[in-house]
Amino acid sequence: MLIFLLLFLLLYLSSFALLGRFKRRGREDYYSTDEDEVTVYRISTWLCTFSLAVSIGAVLLLPISIVSNEVLVNYPNSYYIKWLNSSLIQG
């Protein structure tokens, strides 16, 4: 469970950095005068960041599962790979 939390935090922070990179500059004065607009802006930023993190995780699911299957096929007698497969991937 801790591994998935750390992975999601990494995806969330990278999504926040990516959205911050493409954020339009010079428009801060439009929403900074009203507290309601600031709240709406923060909620929308949180939702966009969360959605992007989940989308990136969904896109990476197939390549990660292909790589893990290939590692399992290439090293079928390794106890470490069997442990990773049983406890992390299947659990």
Automatic annotation (TrEMBL):
Keywords carried by this UniProt record: Membrane, Signal, Transmembrane, Transmembrane helix
Entry's transmembrane regions: 43-62
GO molecular function, one term: transmembrane signaling receptor activity
One Pfam family it belongs to: LMBR1
Superkingdom of the organism of origin: Eukaryota
Signal sequence bounds: 1-17
Keyword Transmembrane: yes
CC annotations in GO: plasma membrane
Any single biological process term in GO: signal transduction
Family: Belongs to the LIMR family.
Protein name per UniProt: Uncharacterized protein
UniProt organism field: Rhamnusium bicolor
